[in-house]
Amino acid sequence: MSERPSPVVRSFFDRPTGSLQYVFHDPETMQGAIVDPVWNFFPEAGAVTTDSAEEILAYVRETGIEVVWILDTHPHADHFSAAPWLAEQLGAPRGIGAHVTGVQELWKGLYHLPADFPTDGRQWDRLFAAGERFMVGNIEVAVMFSPGHTLASVTYVAGDAAFVHDTLMAPASGTSRADFPGGSAEALWDSIRALLDLPADTRLFVGHDYPAPNAAPQPVATVAEHRAHNIHVRDGVDKGAFLATRTARDATLPLPARMLAALQVNIRGGRLPEPEADGHSYLRLPMGRFEPR
After folding, report:
1. What is the mean pLDDT of residues 176-196?
2. Are 163 and 73 in contact, with CB atoms under 8 Å apart?
3. What phi and psi, each to the nearest 5 degrees, are found at residue 252?
4. Phi/psi of residue 32, each to 5°?
5. I need a surface site. Which of 24, 47, 104, 282 has the fewest CB within 10 A?
6. Which DSSP symbol is given to 255?
7. CB burial class (10 A; 0-12, 13-18, 19+) of residue 60?
8. Does the pLDDT value for residue 140 go beyond 80?
9. Residue 17 above 90 pLDDT?
10. CA distance 177 to 173
11. The CATH number, out of the four listed (3.60.15.10, 3.10.20.740, 3.40.50.170, 3.40.50.10750), of the domain defined by the range 8-266
């Protein structure tokens, strides 16, 4: 068996949302991709900044990486996607999994958006089907459909690196929640088991970590490390035990503070609603749709 290519991976951390963002590149060709970039949103002020995205932009320019894809793993509930802004700066196409159309349909109803709001994924340049493959330099990237956290989530497997979004967390933290609209703990179990069937040395880069204020995040652990130590899905934990743990844990979690703002931006591909007559964009707040926790 030939050795798998090993992309260079750099992580970026947005501490207010616990979000991990990535740039990976092929060291031979210096072509690369950006995964799940954050557009900073301050709900108390209704303001956005590009601080996190500018950090990524500076890195790719200083390193000499030619960005050929900007990739979303799913429509996020805790931050706005900076993919459109970075695409404008870098001239790179944007991609997401093809099942995003189901998330658009679901949240179109929750937000009571107009009938002409498009739910065909046209907000992205490419909708990746499960099993589809594409190249970043000499590194082949495979798309794995990984639902559970959302009904549209995908994993990008690039050589010996897999960007697993909100499926697994660091082994000591377990797994991601599955209680959002369209989520499923059972689907999450199936997705995680598929990820843990990847080769043991595969590096799994997670979507979130929540370290102590002065501690660094843990963005990556191998398949072998998860199978040995992940508190929710290590070898020996069966499906029933996982479902009981995940469901009980989810029942205690508050909804993300930015969720109702973030989803209506992210189903638009990371763009604010069209400005109204006064030149400003406005977000909807669906009242009575969710119970307080």
Report:
1. 97
2. yes
3. -95, -10
4. -150, 180
5. 47
6. P
7. buried
8. yes
9. yes
10. 11
11. 3.60.15.10
Containing 200, the helix (H) or strand (E) segment is none
As a whole number of angstroms, the distance between CA 21 and CA 163 comes to 10
Task: Give the pLDDT band (50/70/90) at residue 2.
Answer: low
Return the residue matching tokens 């997670």: 206
pLDDT for the residue numbered 1: 42
Contacts of 9 (CB under 8 A, 6+ apart): 22, 23, 24, 161, 203, 205, 220
DSSP state of 73: S
CA–CA separation, 20 and 36 (whole Å) = 8
Type of residue numbered 196: L
Per-residue pLDDT reduced to its tens digit, 48-68: 999 999 999 999 999 999 999
Confidence check: pLDDT of 152 > 70 = yes
**How many whole angstroms separate alpha carbon 142 and alpha carbon 194?**
13
Largest separation between any pair of C-alpha atoms in the chain: 62
Distance, CA of 154 to CA of 150 (rounded, Å): 9
Residue with tokens 């690039």: 158
Domain boundaries defined on the chain: 8-266
Per-residue b/e over 130-165, b at no fewer than 16 CB within 10 Å? Answer: eebebebbebebbbbbbbbbbbbbbbbbbbbbbbbb
- pTM attached to this predicted model: 0.96
Provide the sign of the torsion angle of the four alpha carbons 177, 196, 6, 137, taken in this order: negative
Q: How far apart are CA 92 and CA 293, in angstroms?
A: 40
Instruction: Say how far apart CA 256 and CA 163 lie, in whole Å.
Output: 22
Q: Are the beta carbons of 61 and 117 closer than 8 angstroms?
A: no
